[in-house]
Structure formats: C-alpha cells, structure tokens
Amino acid sequence: MTTATCPSVPATTLKDPAAGIRAFMFFDGFVRLVLWQASLALTIVLFNVLDAWPAQAPFGTDWHATWKWVEKLGHMVLVFNVAYLLLLLVLRLLIPTPKEGRYSFVKGTLRRDLLWAALISVLTRARYEPPFPGFLVFHLVNLPPFCWLVRWIMGPNSRSVFVLNPPIPDPDFTEIGRNVTIGWGTSITAHIQDREGVTLKKVVIEDNVMIGAEVLIYGGTRIKRGAVVYGGAVVRPDTVIGENEAWAGVPARKIKDLQPVG
Fold it and tell me: What pTM, to 2 d.p., does this model score?
C-alpha cells in the first residue's frame, strides 16, 4: 500500500526573512530616532531665532511665570508636530512610488518596487504610530494646508475628514471619496501576502460610504457610492461592492439593497 504525498515548495527556493526583518527593524528605529532628533532640533532653533523663551526660570517663581513656560511648552509641542509631519513628507518625496502587481519572495526575484514599498512602510509606521509628542500628527493631516500636502505626497488620496484614525498601511494605494465614515479599529490594506510573495492592489472607496467598526478591507476592493459595510466584516481581495448595497459577515456578503443617498 502506498501513501500519496502532496507536492511542496523546496525549502531552498524561499528566502529566510530573518536577516531582512532585522535590517528593517533597525532601519525603522533609526528613522524614528532621526525624525525625533531633527524635529526637536528644528523646534529649538526656531524658538532661539524668535527669542521666544520666557525671561524667568520655570522653577522657584510665581504662577504667572510658570504659566508662561507651560504656554511655551505647548507651542513647542505644536511646532514639533508640524516639523515631524513636514519631515515625513520630505522623506516620502525621495522614495519612488511602487507599482501595483505581484512581487515574489523567491530567491533572485526581489524587485526594486518591493524595496520602495518597505521604505514607505517605515514612514507610514512613523506616521500612524508616533509616540508623544507626535500625538497631533493625525489632527494635522486632517487640517489645511497639511491635508492637501499629505493627500498629494503620501496618501491616502482622500476627500473625507476622519475623527478616528483608521490604520491605512498602504496609503499610496488607497483612494477615498467624500463623506466616507470609517469606524473604530477598521483597517484598510492594499497588500495581500502569502508564503511566496506579496501583491499590491489599489483599494477604492467612493462617496457617501459608511464602514463600521473592526472591518478588514483587502487589496483590490472597490466599494461603490452609498454602500454600507457593517462592523466586523472581512472584505476579501478583489471584492466589488455595488452602489447602495449593504454587506456584512466573514467573509462579507451582500445582505440587502439600500435606498439611494441624495
């Protein structure tokens, strides 16, 4: 009696990612540290040039002088965040935008576009995960003139304003229309990864779309005007959700039609 065995990918054909991941983490930490240092240095230099420091020391003095220092520190935090965001945008301008497509992890097939995507992800992490005092970055990217710069340089290409901060790890490949609501904990990712490689596909969300909390939206998805995706849904790659359709579930499926929005 013989036992059939399933064919498998030879172990020698796939790259061990350990060295690459360590290099990525080192570079990620280095970029974050440099961003902090440069932003803080620019802030201090600006305050020195403007002679904006209070005349009295903050300790061992009266309430009025102490409050002056608190005001200046608040101004410093704001200027730091502006400098932080502008430096992110400048660095993003230096990196080419990768193309949509399939990129293999097999040895000898690594393409430059995958490297650009990795470098952009470093900046994206620094944008979405900035520790204090980077806490105003999300507010700034939703306010003019920064929202226009971010939309043009870094993405996502969005005409909506968000109260929550939805994680969008592939902003270059994400397009969001007007009056789009995105619930808490929802993630929009334009890359699909498996053992052998990663695929980059644009996600398009049209006008007047409502997306609930804790939704996962994968690459290649298009959500058309007036659609609703209920909380907890998982929208599979390459899904097309029609106009004024309601979808829910894991995986997400159409559950009903909605009245057209005005």
Answer: 0.83
